[in-house]
Specification:
Elements (H helix, E strand, L loop, with lengths): L1 H6 L7 H14 L47 E2 L6 E2 L41 E2 L6 E2 L41 E2 L6 E2 L37 E2 L2 E2 L6 E2 L3 E2 L50 H9 L7 E2 L2 E2 L8 H11 L22 H9 L22 H11 L22 H9 L19 H11 L10
Antiparallel strand pairs: 1-2, 3-4, 5-6, 7-10, 8-9, 11-12
């Protein structure tokens, strides 16, 4: 208060008298009291810019808009005395002039009176981002909190704090950029353009983008510790700073020996209970690995085309005849098609099995079969064995291949005159069959389940290679 009295031009107190007043107050205690004697000094709102205040009311410490490089206009003081209110100055806001102007969250040392503690971020040193778009809270002591409107370390954004980014600055055209309230990563759904590596948004085909790691860490990638990063060129994880070899196969389909134990993907016991590797470790009780059809049977099983004929024990019944309804299941699954959703007897009146009928109906819808008698009210003979000639017709139609047009006896001596001679010869031409014996196909014999597996595996190039063993 004595400082204000001595500097007040209206009172015109002499330097000598001021010295006496200061000496008197030093002994009487009035230096800490206001003129009224009941309020402390250094109070925001008393029109005296005291220690710790940038200004106070009309006391602007001699500053003006012009003196601050803000053009003409009327400089004012913020109500909390934390800094100048330059909203009435004439110049455009200038990031870097230590004055938080309109549109700036802060500017240099001008934090608008905010601290780590006032933001609920614990102790520490609050700072301002270089672009004045928000606070830099890396030196605050608390953990990042998604939802506090402050984009902290590991967050691309938080609420309204978008770190100064827009759809346009991210290379995503026009629109309104938002922040996902759950992940604190950019929500670009309202942007009009397409993305790209380097825009901070994980687009299709990217594992990460910039600081946006999608919540992943070295630990979640199977390493012991370290700092996970994102390759700025490929937008894939950079694990060069991760420490420690994973102690398990972290990805069972990446072609990499993650834990460096000599076994990769499904061949690693770490993956034996992880789909699709889990079936690779199963074995049929009734099919020895030396059986001529073993590889095809196993390929159909691990690719979910067959479940075998028994699950406990796991068996395939390879010497049994292949029924027409089971062959329909094989074909539809091998083609990558889904079962039909029509009612069971929509096409064939003799279907009774709810498990296989949707596959038979799908074969009809795909044009692979018309049954024994064509729909409506047709018959399919679902429980009858598949005749080897009929199997050839099913396969050629399912493959959308054209029947053979050459001589009937080009490949086999026993197919001339058969209703399926052209389909049988086409199967031979494609390398799918070589007959049961040299130049003998046996078109009117029933198809064994082992033969059905070989036909399907060869026709659709289905293998168990991904198992790795």
């Amino acid at each position: 208060m004595m400082d204000w009295i001595c500097k007040n031009e209206f009172l015109k107190i002499s330097a000598g008298l001021c010295s006496m007043l200061f000496a008197f107050c030093a002994t009487s205690g009035c230096a800490s009291e206001s003129l009224g004697g009941n309020q402390t000094s250094e109070v925001c709102g008393n029109n005296i810019a005291e220690e710790g205040e940038s200004c106070d009311g009309t006391d602007l410490r001699g500053e003006t808009c012009e003196a601050l490089g803000l053009g003409d206009g009327e400089l004012a003081c913020r109500a909390d005395c934390s800094g100048f209110d330059a909203s009435e100055c004439m110049s455009e806001p200038q990031c870097g002039n230590n004055i938080a102007e309109e549109g700036e969250t802060c500017d240099g040392a001008d934090l608008k009176g905010k601290t780590c503690e006032s933001l609920g971020l614990g102790d520490g040193e609050l700072a301002c981002r270089a672009d004045c778009s928000g606070f830099e809270v890396t030196e605050c002591m608390s953990e990042p909190q998604c939802g506090n409107n402050i984009a902290e370390e590991g967050e691309a954004c938080d609420g309204t704090d978008l770190r100064g980014q827009t759809c346009e600055s991210l290379g995503l055209g026009d629109g309104v950029l938002a922040c996902d309230p759950d992940t604190c990563q950019f929500d670009t759904s309202e942007c009009t353009g397409e993305g790209g590596c380097g825009n901070g948004v994980i687009d299709s085909g990217e594992s990460c983008d910039g600081s946006n790691l999608d919540g992943e860490t070295c630990e979640t990638q199977g390493f012991g510790s370290g700092d996970l990063a994102c390759d700025p060129t490929t937008c894939q994880f950079d694990t060069s700073e991760c420490i420690g070899i994973p102690d398990y196969e972290t990805d069972c389909q990446d072609g990499i020996d993650n834990d460096q134990d000599g076994d990769t993907d499904c061949a690693d016991t770490d993956c034996m209970n992880v789909a699709p590797c889990d079936r690779c470790w199963d074995t049929f009780d009734d099919v020895d690995s030396s059986h001529w059809a073993y590889d095809s049977i196993r390929a159909l099983y691990v690719n979910l085309i067959t479940d075998g004929c028994s699950s406990s024990p796991l068996a395939y019944c390879h010497e049994d005849d292949q029924t027409r309804k089971a062959f329909a299941v094989f074909l539809v699954r091998a083609m990558g098609e889904s079962p039909s959703t029509v009612s069971m007897n929509a096409y064939f009146d003799d279907l009774t099995d709810p498990a296989t009928s949707p596959y038979v109906n799908k074969l009809y819808e795909l044009g692979v079969t018309n049954g024994y008698e064509a729909p409506p009210n047709g018959t399919f003979g679902p429980d009858d064995p598949v005749e080897r000639a009929a199997a050839a017709v099913f396969l050629i139609r399912a493959l959308n291949e054209t029947p053979y047009t050459g001589a009937e006896d080009t490949f086999f001596d026993d197919v001339a005159g058969c209703y399926a001679v052209d389909e049988i010869n086409r199967l031979a031409q494609l390398g799918i069959t070589s007959g049961r014996e040299p130049r003998m196909y046996y078109p009117y014999e029933d198809l064994y389940r082992s033969e059905g597996a070989v036909f399907i595996a060869r026709a659709f190039n289905i293998t168990d290679d991904f198992c790795g063993f």
